[in-house]
Amino acid sequence: MKTLIFFASPNKKGNTYNLVNKFIEGIGGEVDIVNVYDKKVSPCVDCKYCYTKEQCAIKDDMQEIYAKINDSDVIVIASPMYFSSVTAPMKAIIDRLQIYWSKKYIRKDRENLKNRKAVVLSTGGVYWINMFQPLEAVLKHAFAAMDAKDMEKVYAVNTDTMPVEKNEEKLKEAYELGVKIRKNLK
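and the corresponding structure tokens:
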């Protein structure tokens, strides 16, 4: 089982990092972490190149990321919530998933689709009712493009006053989600 984690936090040792580490402890196996802040990914320019090929015309770090997506069984997007969504570098990657969408809906190519597991690990400094709904709407479409289904999630809120490293309940939840997925995908 191969797990691909998109680590989309600029804070390399913060709240999102702590959730990710506990999840990794639980899931075990082969884990590949893409630190999105270290990648050079240009935004989609709607050139429609992917309408005829399963490729993107822009040659940047997305080429490596496409290969990692294609090789994964579990895809995790781990991001703090910024203005009701993922961070900007993660959003650029999501927009470049157009090659997968075009494959299915423009070229009608349904070969080699893979059933992957979708996971969201997200943090928010404060809390309000339904705060993760906009994030989930974006990620639902991103995961669908990557053939990742049955989105599981761990959300840690009020991290401004209760950092994840001190929140035993959320750390346990992230660990147990990893264990559950490992057992279910064997």
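(Above: one complete record from the training split.) The first helix runs from residue 15 to 27.
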